[in-house]
Each structure stands twice: as C-alpha cells, then as structure tokens.
Amino acid sequence: GAAAQAAQAADARPASDGAAAAPAAGAHDGLFGVFSDIGRARSLPEVLTLLAGHAASMADRVAVLIVGGSAMRPFALRDEPGASLPAMEVTIVPGTLFAAAVESGRPATTRDLPMGQGNPIADALAPRAGCYGTAFPVLQAGRTAAILYCERAETEGPAAVDPKLKSLEVLIRQASWRLDGLARSAGAGQAPVQG
Fold first, then answer.
1. CB of 51 within 8 A of CB of 145?
2. For 100-112, b where at least 16 C-beta lie within 10 A, e where not — what string?
3. Which of 144, 135, 92 has its CA nearest to residue 116?
4. Which of 45, 99, 190, 193 could cross-link to 9 by cystine, CB 3.0-4.6 Å?
5. 43 within 8 A of 195, measured Cβ to Cβ
6. What whole-number distance in Å separates Cα of residue 2 and Cα of residue 142?
7. Distance between CA atoms of residues 145 and 172, nearest Å
C-alpha cells in the first residue's frame, strides 16, 4: 500500500540535499514540462523528487516528508547548502500544521497552526523570520502519502491568493493522480520501477 511504498521511497533518497535546488536532470522548464515529467515517472521517489525540484523554484525552502500512519520522516530538503533534516521518524502531533494537512487532505499554513514544538523535524523546518510555511498533502489512493512543505516570504502574499502556491497545488494534484496510477498498476501486477 501507500505506507509501504512511502517507506521504500524514504530509504531511496537522502533527506539532506541542500544544494540541489533545481529540478531533476532532464526536467523540462515550466509547469507543463513538469506535468509531463511527472506523468512519465515510474515510482513514488521519482514523483516526489520532481515535485520537490519544481517547488524549489517557487519557494525559499522546500521539504518532502513521507507519511506512514501517524508518523513522518524526511525524504528530501531543498535549502541552503549544508542544511539537513534529522534522519528519523517522528509522530505527527494532533493540532499541528502537519496533522491538519494529513487529516484534511488540504494545505495548512503556519499562519493558522503551530508547527509542533519538540518535534525535531518541525523544529528544523520552523519558518525563518519574515516567512511562513505551508504543508501540502500529496495523496495516493485518498490517503496522505507525503507532505510537501514550502516556506515563502511574508511579502509574497497570503497562501490563499499566492499564484505560485496555486500553481503548486495544481502540480500536487497531478502528482497525486500519477501516484494513484502507479498504485493501480502495482495492484494489477505491474510493479512500478523503484528509484
């Protein structure tokens, strides 16, 4: 299921790749090119890597967190060189930004909810001064398989009207549709190629 594939994805890619802010090699320029690349992706890690790379062109800091049940662990980070996330699984605490995104299947922002103090991943991703964070759920078969966390400067407008974040929401829907297709293929005996 989604949790097993998510666990494989987390093992397939290091959580610390701060300098790699550009989309993956071979990725096209623009939103439609990324749609095409995601549509050809053959595994959860490939979909999430493409998503993180494109999101990094729209946000100051990006993290992808794999969700399994009531826990999450880092998959990728696009940040300043040398930045990293703790390589550990942590419980998603109710009432936090990450819990709201997982439970509702909708984006949640630090403007409305806390990150969750005492959680090493949330502490590492706490928005910097003058910034806010948005957690976007990436769905597979109706469940949150991953969270795409993006940090942007407060001067870039509220998440509800920010055109870059609206474009990102559309891209996340495409990624979710692709993950659903991969899950259906795996269920039909056509296992997706793992990254």
1. no
2. bbbeeeebbbbee
3. 92
4. 45
5. yes
6. 10
7. 12
Whether 128 contacts 151, CB under 8 Å: yes
The residues, any chain, with a CB within 8 Å of residue 44's CB and separated by 6 or more, are 5, 6, 8, 9, 140, 145, 146, 179, 182, 192, 195
Closest CA to 44 of 152, 194, 188, 189: 194
What's the full length of the chain, in residues?
195
Do the Cβ atoms of 101 and 122 come closer than 8 Å?
no
| Helix or strand holding residue 97 (H, E) | helix 97-104
* Interval 150-163: pLDDT, tens: 998 877 555 556 77
Give the helix/strand (H/E) hosting 148: strand 143-153
Tokens standing for residue 81:
């060189």
**Quick check: helix, strand or coil at residue 133?**
strand
Cα 92 from chain centroid (whole Å): 15
As given in the structure block, the two tokens for residue 150 are: 């993006």
Please name every residue paired with 109 in a beta bridge, in sequence order, or none if there are none: 134
**33 vs 26, 53, 164, CA distance in Å?**
10, 12, 16
Q: What is the pLDDT of residues 74-127, one digit of tens each?
A: 999 999 888 999 999 999 999 999 999 999 999 999 999 999 878 899 999 999
